[in-house]
């Protein structure tokens, strides 16, 4: 399969694209080469043991693979030191000595790092993805190296973009582009020179690419109405915090596609352009016949997470299943609305981008018909999607616009349906919402807030409050839960119910979560200098944070930076997160190894059981407030609350009750053996500056063994003026 030369390495016959492999002899190298050859690469190589004597090929490859054992990090640096190889996709394989080692390989210049063992299919898929980008770069590299003037004729524009949206470097190309001009963008933030929605879209994709360490592509439009130019942008990782962006004006190709009426190649459904043309025709019919019409914009919840964790191949398979289920739903709707077989269908379906589908219902006479169809669509996804052993929960959110009330042309109706979809995503009833006039204003407000949230960290607008937890046996403070607040300088306090969805939608949950973790650890470490019996501080993890690669490393960094003892930090996550994350047990064991405590929040509202929690290193569970609120009356919630406390004690888990507000609730929980309470009965969330006074007044004031007087406890802990 390959021939070796001690000085120059090895080479294989293969396709036109070159791949450079730096590896030692062995099974792993043979697997890499076989996967590359199957993808059509001509493989050239350098023996990993050749040290600095190994020669790099004269011609720049489309892909570089490094599998050099302990020398992988050094080889990555050597590769990146070569001018011609500076931007070529570099895949590194490692034996996986830990997250810190992976971080070092990334810092050395790797585009993607995979932990061995890996299989042939996995490598082929990754090599195909990275190789596509590498071929584009290889094509423009000779021009970039010899004479930049040649790039004036290249249609692609090459930039290096930072994680913050700053255009750090213009590499060449795109000189004749009518809108995406290099001199307009160089050394500027995207938000300063591009429309807000386009800049936000690019920024989200930059952060997604950096998070996944995988190339990505997407499309957007620029220009005035009627003169829109359509662009395709591809991104590839170029370091810890920057990406290579390759932009191409595809407006002419889009015209050809429109003329051909080309369908979406993945699902076989009509694409965006074909759909809008079809919708215009249906609107003409609706005007002429004076019929109603409904546009349903359908988006998949948490689909990005499927792509991020399982890969694009799984995501594509899910989209094909979704398309089939939606088609089936609409055929059923046609059968109900038009029972005669010769009457024709009354619905249309298209995929207009990513995980966004649009359905149109014609001949609508009443709103209830649309509600039934939307309910049928959501019911179709009650069963998970099965793919290669994965059971994936896929649930749609649906935004609905009606003609003529919500728009008179195709784009207006689609915009209204999208505004309703945004509302449905933010917690609409049953995951579906009809458009209303007030929605667009709320959508615009959220867009404004998303932009402002990006700078809130820099402007010190985010802050933490601390909700005390009270030990029922001793009356002492048993913990402090860190709660995020955003004090906007103009809008005032932004509620947590609005802040968290905004952070998730704008891709800021991870950086904000990291700030919360570091700030809480710093506060706790400062207080611990005064209080020897300082109670632990707990931090809530979002699903995006829990699923991130390297969470234990982030937690370790916060502890190390603050000097806080690990035992004084607790991490709270919901049982739903444990059920959805396949690697939950592995992640939790790594967190436990750091010495931090794990608390399950909102217990009782998910689908897990206490028995299942035994497999996780859990310190305590928190009973959801919905059970505590009903525990005084003879209700099912009261029985569940009692059962949770009894079973938890048997399993050796501490039990914390949330949302305690009355003496009657305290009596009930104390009688059942609940360990600790948390709620406004004792105190509202404390400002950082009020915590020391709170601890001074109440920490350790009740001697061990004393009988607890609940009235005294309440008087001690009532600090409502600090809210």
Task: Give structural notes.
By secondary structure, the chain is of the alpha/beta class. The chain has 4 domains: 3-145, Response regulator (Rossmann fold); 149-252, PAS domain (Beta-Lactamase, 2-Layer Sandwich), CATH 3.30.450.20; 264-435, Reverse transcriptase/Diguanylate cyclase domain (Alpha-Beta Plaits), CATH 3.30.70; 450-722, Alpha-Beta Barrel (TIM Barrel), CATH 3.20.20. The protein is 43% helix and 23% strand. The chain has 26 helices and 29 strands. It has an 8-stranded mixed beta barrel, surrounded by 4 helices. Strands 1-2-4-3-5-6-7 form a 7-stranded mixed sheet, with helices on both faces. Helix 10 (303-310) packs antiparallel against helix 11 and helix 18 packs parallel to helix 20 (584-594). The longest helix is centred in the first third of the chain and has 27 residues, at 120-146. The model is unreliable at 1-8, 140-153, 253-262, 335-345, 700-713 and 717-723 (pLDDT under 50).
- The termini sit apart by 72 Å
CATH level-1 class of the largest domain: Alpha Beta
Q: What is the CATH architecture descriptor of the largest domain?
A: Alpha-Beta Barrel
Oligomer: single chain
In the CATH hierarchy, what is the superfamily of the largest domain? EAL domain
Q: Portion of residues in helices?
A: 40-55%
Q: Widest sheet: strand order?
A: 20-21-23-24-25-26-27-28
Structural class: alpha/beta
Rg, please? Answer: 29 Å
**Mean pLDDT across all amino acids:** 76
Question: How many beta strands in the DSSP annotation?
Answer: 29
Our count of helices gives: 26
């Amino acid at each position: 399969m390959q021939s070796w030369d001690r000085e120059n390495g090895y080479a294989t016959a293969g396709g036109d694209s070159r791949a450079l492999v730096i590896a030692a002899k062995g099974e792993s190298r043979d697997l890499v080469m076989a996967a590359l050859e199957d993808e059509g690469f001509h493989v050239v190589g350098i023996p990993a043991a050749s040290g600095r004597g190994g020669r790099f090929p004269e011609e720049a490859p489309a892909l570089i693979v490094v599998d050099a054992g302990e020398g992988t990090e050094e080889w990555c640096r050597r590769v990146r030191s070569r001018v011609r190889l500076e931007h070529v996709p570099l895949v590194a394989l490692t034996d996986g000595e830990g997250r810190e080692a992976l971080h070092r390989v990334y810092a050395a210049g790797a585009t993607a790092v995979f932990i061995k063992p890996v299989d042939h299919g996995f490598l082929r898929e990754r090599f195909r993805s990275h190789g596509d980008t590498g071929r584009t770069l290889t094509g423009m590299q000779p021009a970039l190296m010899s004479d930049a003037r040649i790039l004036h004729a290249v249609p692609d524009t090459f930039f290096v973009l930072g994680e913050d949206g700053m255009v750090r470097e213009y590499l060449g190309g795109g000189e004749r582009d009518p809108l995406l001009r290099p001199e307009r963008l160089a050394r500027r933030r995207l938000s300063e020179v591009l429309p807000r929605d386009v800049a936000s879209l690019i920024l989200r994709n930059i952060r997604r690419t950096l998070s996944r360490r995988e190339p990505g592509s997407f499309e957007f439009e620029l220009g005035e109405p009627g003169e829109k130019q359509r662009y395709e942008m591809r991104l590839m990782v170029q370091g810890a915090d920057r990406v290579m962006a390759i932009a191409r004006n595809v407006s002419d190709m889009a015209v050809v596609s429109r003329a051909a009426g080309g369908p979406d190649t993945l699902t076989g459904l009509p694409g965006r352009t074909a759909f809008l043309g079809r919708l215009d025709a249906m609107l003409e019919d609706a005007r002429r016949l004076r019929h109603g019409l409904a546009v349903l914009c359908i988006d998949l919840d948490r689909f990005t997470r499927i792509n991020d964790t399982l890969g694009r191949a799984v995501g594509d398979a899910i989209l094909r299943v979704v398309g089939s289920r939606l088609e089936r739903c609409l055929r059923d709707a046609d059968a109900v609305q038009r029972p005669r077989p010769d009457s024709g269908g009354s619905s249309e379906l298209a995929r207009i981008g990513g995980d966004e589908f649009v359905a149109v219902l014609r001949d609508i006479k009443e709103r209830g018909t649309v509600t039934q169809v939307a309910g049928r669509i959501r019911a179709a996804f009650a069963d998970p999607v099965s793919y290669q052993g994965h059971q994936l929960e896929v649930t749609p959110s649906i935004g609905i616009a009606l003609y003529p009330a919500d728009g008179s042309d195709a784009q207006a109706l689609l915009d209204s349906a999208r505004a309703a979809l945004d509302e449905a995503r933010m917690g609409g009833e049953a995951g579906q919402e009809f458009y209303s006039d007030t929605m667009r204003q709320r959508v615009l407000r959220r867009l404004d807030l998303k932009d402002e949230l990006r700078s809130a960290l820099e402007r010190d607008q985010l802050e933490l409050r601390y909700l005390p937890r009270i030990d029922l046996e001793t009356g002492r403070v048993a913990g402090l839960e860190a709660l995020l607040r955003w004090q906007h300088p103009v809008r005032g306090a932004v509620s947590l119910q609005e802040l968290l969805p905004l952070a998730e939608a704008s891709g800021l949950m991870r950086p904000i979560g990291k700030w919360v973790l570091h700030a809480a650890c710093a506060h706790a470490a400062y207080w611990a200098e005064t209080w020897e019996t300082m109670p632990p501080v707990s931090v809530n993890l979002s699903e995006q944070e829990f699923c991130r690669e390297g969470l234990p490393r982030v937690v370790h960094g916060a502890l190390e930076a603050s000097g806080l003892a690990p035992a004084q930090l607790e991490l709270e996550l919901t049982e739903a997160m444990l059920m959805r994350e396949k690697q939950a047990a592995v992640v939790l064991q790594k967190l436990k190894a750091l010495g931090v405590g794990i608390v399950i929040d909102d217990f009782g509202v998910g689908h897990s059981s206490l028995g299942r929690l035994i497999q996780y290193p859990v310190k305590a569970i928190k009973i959801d407030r919905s059970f505590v609120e009903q525990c005084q009356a003879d209700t099912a919630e009261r029985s569940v609350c009692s059962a949770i406390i009894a079973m938890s004690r048997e399993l050796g888990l501490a039990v914390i009750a949330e949302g305690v507000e009355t003496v009657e609730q305290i009596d009930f929980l104390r009688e059942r053996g609940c360990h600790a309470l948390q709620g406004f009965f004792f105190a509202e969330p404390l400002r950082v500056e009020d915590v020391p006074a709170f601890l001074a007044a109440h920490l350790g004031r009740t001697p061990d063994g004393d009988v607890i007087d609940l009235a005294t406890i309440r008087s001690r802990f009532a600090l409502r003026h600090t809210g």
